[in-house]
Every structure is written in C-alpha cells, then in structure tokens.
Amino acid sequence: MLVLTGFADEISGQLEEQLDVLAAEGISHLELRGVYGKNVMDLTVEELAQLKATLEEKGIGVSSIGSPIGKYPIQEPFDKELEKIQQALAIAKKLGTRYIRVFSYFIPANESHENYRDEVLSRMKQLAERAEQEGVTLLLENESGVYGNTDERCLDILQHCGSSNLRLAFDPGNFVMNEIMPMCEAYPLLSPYLEYVHIKDADRQARMFVPAGEGDGEFPSFVKALKEREFSGFLSIEPHLHKAFPDHSGPERFKIAAQAFKKLLQREGLAWS
Fold this sequence. Notes:
12 strands, two-stranded parallel sheet, single chain, alpha/beta, 9 helices
C-alpha cells in the first residue's frame, strides 16, 4: 500500500495547522522535522509527550523522524553525532516509527569527495550499527553538498555498510539539482535499496524546486516504476516551493505539491492511504 506523508513543517510551525492541512489532503502521516518552533531533536520530554497525545487524538502517524544527523561538516567531531543517533532512536521508538532520515556529511567546497570517503563510510557504518541494535532503519537522503549527493556515492555508502537497517530515501529533485537524472541514471543503480521516497521535483535550468511532474525529475516514469515494482511504503511530500510560489502561504504551497503528486498517482490508477 502506498502511504502519503509529508514534511508538515513546510505548512506551518504550528502543529494544529499542520494537522488540519494534512487531514484536508487525506494524508495520514507526517515526517517529523519541525514543530513548536523547534527541530524534532530539540523537543523536551514534555513536548514529545504532548505531541504524541495530539497525534494519537487526530489519528496521524509519524512516518519518519526527519533528523539532521549527518547534515554537518565532515570535519566536526563524531562523538556528538553518536549521542544524537541515540537520541533520535529514542524519539523514533516513543513516537512509533521505524524510520530516521539521515545524511552523509558535508564535504568542504573545492575539495575532492574521495579525500573524505573513508571517514564518511566509517561514520555511516557506525550509525547503521546503532540502528541495527535498536531495530530501527536509517534512511539515507541524497542531499546536495554531502558525500552522497550522487547516485554512485549513495551506492558506495549503501554497499559498504551492507545493512538492512540503512536504506535509501530516494529524492528525485535533489538528484536533478546535482545533475543526475533520477530515472535514467540513479534509479537503475539504487532501486534495490529504495525503501522511502521524497516527493520533490526540480527545474534544472531555473535551479528551483517545482511540483511533482512539472520539472526534470522524470516523475511520470518514476510513478510507473513504483507501480511495476508494486512498491509499498511511504511517499513523503517535501515541497520546497518557496521560489516557485513566493506569494503563496505555506499551507497553499503544500496543497499545490500534494495535489500535483496525487494527480500523477491517479493517472496510474494507484490508490493511497
């Protein structure tokens, strides 16, 4: 079953408004990144308890913890990251999700990625081992600027770690921004590791994110591929439409993104929950 979720902090900083828009769009989950004006990793014990109670009352599940783990310069000490992964694992368990989104560390500008390969792979393997111990799955996002910003380096990380607790959050828009064609190039290499999807498209020439199907992210063929493989899992709407729709509000931009993607699903006759 396809399950729609989304980065609800792009709707609003207020939880109630986030949940209202999700409900209006028929979206049953959220990817928890920001709420109460804070990053999820900065929530207090009391705030987490309040959040859990509100989500249960509204019938909204948490698809993933949108942590910033690995979204730091590779030169920074790793011990703090090990503390953060334990914190994220505890939050995931408290909120009933088996997924945590992670990144593969920013590489210094104008330096070779290869210079930092061993350190990145060592760190990612240690993070995956912590996840294995707790029965949680880390989702590697192909973010710009990090070691795994290309399909080949994502594959390098996933193959090196060789862990069923480190999988891929496939982000077509981010691949476009890094001059990688999502379906022609990235998908054939990475499809065995794909377990989660970020719904984000991008216009390569304009260098901005756009609604799914309106950019160079090859979304129509991607949705067909999901149908052919009988993909079952989360599809997370992450609009980033501030440049494309600067005069629209957060709720409006999120609705535009959600409705554009739902049209693509409908064209393929795919149902979602």
